[in-house]
Amino acid sequence: MTRGLLLLSGGFDSVVAGKLLQEQGVKLEAVHFSLEPFTDDAAERKAARLAAHLGVPRLHVVAAGPLFSELTQKADQRLYFVLSKRLMARVAGELAPRLGCEAIATGENIGQVSSQTLPNLASIDRASPLPVLRPLLAYDKVDIVDLAREIGTYEISVGPEVCDVLGPTHPSTGAQLERVEKEESNLDVPALVGKGLASLRVVDTTSELPTN
C-alpha cells in the first residue's frame, strides 16, 4: 500500500485531495505548517478536525511562521509562495520517510491562485526529495468546494484563508528555477529545514472525532 504525507492546511483543497487519495488506496499521515505567531491557532485546529475526519489519528505540526518570516526578510518577496512551498516540500520530504511515507501530497491545482502556475509548480517539485502527488491538479475551485460538501468537510474548512498572510499582493507567476535558486542562496536552507524539523510536535486528533 502506498503511504503519503499530506500537507493539510485547514482549507478546502488539501482535505479533498487527501480524500481522493484515500479512495485510490493511499494511506495518509498529515502535517500542518503553522503560521503562528502571525496568525492565531484557528488553522491548526481546523487541520486537526480535518485529519480526524479523514481518519488520520495524528497531526504533525511544524512551527513555520518564523521560518517563512525569514524568507520575506532575505529573499525577493514576489517569490514568497514558491520559496515557502519549496521549504515545506523539503521539510515534509525529510519527515515523510520517518513516518513510512513514500510521497508527499498537496491540494495544489493549476491557476486557482496566481502562484499556482506550471512554472512555479515545476520549481517547487525540484526541491522535493520525494514524488509530489496532486490529485486536484486540474480541478476547478467550484468542483473542489462541491466535493468538500459531499465528503462533509465544508463546514470545517469554511472561513478566511490565512496561507497568504505573509505573501505579496502580486506574486511571481513564472518563477524560473535559476531565479528561485539565486534567491535561496541568500538563505541558509539546511538550517531552516533543521529548525522546522526541530519544532515538530504531534497533535492527537482522535479527540476531534464527533461523539454519538
General description of the model:
There is one protein chain. With 212 residues, this protein is of the alpha/beta class. It has one domain (3-203): Rossmann fold, CATH 3.40.50. The protein is built from 9 helices and 6 strands, in the order βαβαβααβαβααααβ. It has a 6-stranded mixed beta sheet with strand order 5-4-1-2-3-6, with helices on both faces. Strand 2, helix 2 (42-53) and strand 3 form a beta-alpha-beta unit. Helix 4 runs parallel beside helix 5. The longest helix has 19 residues, at 80-98. The radius of gyration is 16 Å and the shape is globular.
Q: Please tell me how large the radius of gyration is.
A: 16 Å
Biggest sheet strand line-up? 5-4-1-2-3-6
**C-alpha end-to-end distance:** 31 Å
Mean pLDDT: 91
* Helix/strand order, N-terminal first: EHEHEHHEHEHHHHE
Helix content: 40-55%
The CATH class turns out to be Alpha Beta
Count of helical segments? 9
Q: Which geometry do the CA atoms define?
A: globular
Tell me the total number of β-strands: 6
How many structural domains does the protein architecture include? 1
Low-confidence stretches: none
For CATH, the homologous superfamily is named as HUPs
What name does the CATH topology carry? Rossmann fold
* CATH architecture descriptor: 3-Layer(aba) Sandwich
Sheet bearing the most strands, described? 6 strands, mixed
Going by helix content, strand content and strand pairing, the class is alpha/beta
The fraction of residues assigned to DSSP E strands is 5-15%
